[in-house]
Amino acid sequence: AVESTLFSGALRFIAGLSKVTGSGIREATTAAVVLRCKRPLPEPKFVVLPHSSTMSLSLRSLIVPPSTTTLRARTALQWSLKFTTATPFAEKVTSQGLRVSREEVETVTVESREITSSPQNQLIASDSSEEIQGVINNNGFAVLREPEKIRTPSNLSTRSEYEKIKDDKSNEDRFKLRNGREVFEEKAYLISIERKGDQEDLFGIEESLKELAQLADTAGLLVVGSTSQKLATPNPRTYIGSGKVAEIKNAIHALDVETVIFDDELSAGQLRNLEKAFGGDVRVCDRTALILDIFNQRAVTHEAALQVALAQMEYQLPRLTKMWSHLERQAGGRVKGMGEKQIEVDKRILRTQIGALKKELESVRKHRKQYRSRRCSVPVPVVSLVGYTNAGKSTLLNKLTGANVLAEDRLFATLDPTTRRVQTKNGKEFLLTDTVGFIQKLPTTLVAAFRATLEEISESSLLVHVVDISHPLAQQQIDAVEKVLSELDVASIPKLMVWNKVDKVGYPHQVKMETEQREDVICVSALNGDGLQEFCDAVNAKLKDSMVWVEAFVPFEKGELLNTIHQVGMVEGTEYKENGTLVRAHVPLALARQLTPMRQLCKS
Ligand SMILES: Nc1nc2c(ncn2[C@@H]2O[C@H](COP(=O)(O)OP(=O)(O)OP(=O)(O)O)[C@@H](O)[C@H]2O)c(=O)[nH]1
Ligand SMILES: [Mg+2]
Question: Mind telling me which residue stretches traverse the membrane in this protein (predicted)?
Answer without folding.
Answer: none
